[in-house]
Structure formats: structure tokens, C-alpha cells
Amino acid sequence: MLLARNASGALVASTFVPSTEDEDVVLARLASKVSPRVLRHPRELDEARRQLDDFLAGRTRGFTLHTDLALASDFQRIVLPTLASSVGYGTKATYGELAARVDRPKAARAVGAALGANPLCVVLPCHRVVASSGSLTGYAGGLAAKRFLLDLEAGQPIGQPTGQPTGQPTGQPTG
User: Is residue 82 located within the same domain as residue 110?
Assistant: First the structure.
């Protein structure tokens, strides 16, 4: 995961770098949107990295990071804060429900597109939004990452399908 902050220390990006894309290309895109100078100072991102590690290990349920939506579109600046404030840890919403919460009830696809380009993945929890059928659809980190995050928040053992009783192998009869 690529992390980036602005000059004032606010996190502007926590993004998955697609395996098909070179990290330097991603950095150049960030530089064009945030600042002409993108510097690598990993130590200055230690707190963000620690909070992400704690979240992914199940030691915390949220973030206390200062964030900046400089990389977000105008519509994302409406959708992402609403997502963060209305879809809590361990819960899910549909794209349509989130569209209704931003007073655009017919804009489920636009909400999906906004979440698909979320510059602050995991920190602003777009993984909590699912299709109206409940099925998992697109996620920048891939559907396996989305499933991992949802299972983590649901208290499921890692790698255990949601709804599968713990300790019982799939397809095995019980006593």
C-alpha cells in the first residue's frame, strides 16, 4: 500500500498500487495533483503505517489520522465523509443506500465510481459498501482484500468464509 501525506502532515493517499502499474507512475500522478515535489520520507508516515498495521491486525477499529481529500473529486468530497460517518466498523451499506444518504438516490453507480477511486482506501472504508444483492463488487485492492477486510470487521477468522462456523471444515459432516 502506498501512503502519501501533504506538507502539513495530513494523509492524502493510502492506495493499492496495481501490480500492472509502476510505483513511479503512481508517484508522478500524485505529484501532479498534490505537489510538483513528491519526496520519500517514510519516517513521516510512521503513525499512518502503525495505525494501518493495528487495524489490519484487528487491534483497533478506526483511525485518528488527519486526512486531506486533495486527491478527491467534488462528488467524492461529499460521498467519502458520509461513508466514514454513517457506515461503522463491522457494518455494510449498499451503493444505493449510500447514494440516498448523500441525497442522490438514483446515483448508485456514481457512488460506486467515487468509491472505486477512493484516494484513502481502508482509512475511508469503501470496502464496507456492497451491491444491493449483498455480493462483493469492485475494490481497488481486489475482491480478496475486500473480503479480508469485511471478515476482519465481522470477527471471522482470517481465511474463514463469512457465515462458516469456526472450527468446522467446509464440506465435512459433523458428529
Answer: yes
52 and 91 belong to one structural domain:
no
- Cα 170 from chain centre: 29
Instruction: Please state, as a whole number, how many other Cβ atoms lie within 10 Å of the Cβ of residue 116.
Output: 12
Rounded distance between C-alpha atoms, residue 119 and residue 175, angstroms: 49
Residues with active-site annotation: 126
Q: Looking at 22-75, which runs of residues are DSSP E strands?
A: none
Q: What is the pLDDT of residues 5-43, one digit of tens each?
A: 888 889 998 888 766 666 677 667 766 666 655 555 678
- At 6, list the grid cell: 501533504
Q: Is the pLDDT of residue 158 over 70?
A: no
The pLDDT-based confidence of 133 (bands split at 50, 70, 90) is: very high
Is residue 132 included in any domain, yes or no? yes
Domain with 32 in it: 2-56
Tell how strand 93-94 and strand 129-130 pair up. parallel
